[in-house]
Amino acid sequence: MSERSGFLERPGGARLAWRKVDGRGPTVVWLGGFKSDMAGTKAQALADWALARGRAYVRFDYFGHGESSGDFRDGTITRWREDALAVLDALVDGEAVLVGSSMGGWIACLAAMAAPARVKAMVLVAPAPDFTEKLMKPEIPPEGLADLARDGVWLRPSEYGEPYPITRALLEDGARWSILEAQEVPIAAPVRILQGGEDPDVPWAHALQLAQALKGPDVVFTLVRDGDHRLSRPQDIARLLAAVDEAVS
What we know:
Elements: E1 3-9, E2 15-21, E3 24-31, H1 41-53, E4 55-60, H2 77-91, E5 96-101, H3 103-114, E6 119-125, H4 131-136, H5 142-151, E7 153-158, E8 161-167, H6 168-176, E9 191-196, H7 204-213, E10 219-224, H8 234-248
Parallel strand pairs: 3-4, 3-5, 5-6, 6-9, 9-10
Antiparallel strand pairs: 1-2, 2-4, 7-8
């Protein structure tokens, strides 16, 4: 058994890069974070898990991320949600277990709300629903607001590499996809959430708010007290794989 790769053609000539392990379902689908890609530690660990267990697995890069085409600055929550749904339609047979990290947790929720019959369960790592409105926008400094007003883009410093371009279009579009404003997030599938207590990007209380809002009764929230945002240490990966094992069973 091996992992194969390809590109999914999207409207406007965009191409989404993907990698797939054929195996027993439900298919585990990796949904990465903001400015992340499918070559990261957790995504690769899941590929190794799928190959070892004979499980179906799909990972991909959103528009403007990793190996996919497009300018990151042109990306929006709308577009990345559509990417996830296109991958479900084109590359997944039957039910899926959505594994979303950070922004990918938000995209996973949006995909599950759009196609509930396709989602068997979800495993979310430091999920960041509504992050553009609730986590990012309040922290934009005055000079950043001035840049957005003047140029439509602000270069946000990042601990993980080069500054991230944050566009006015991303912020405005993200506000339209808010899910935490409602009293209930209409997802009935089982959900497992792994959250670091020392996460500087997604406060544990934010992830807990999602856990409390989910409609389904089968929700487990695990706080890794000394965990960071990435949760990519060996012990964190072990927790992730255990949660995915439970979700696919």
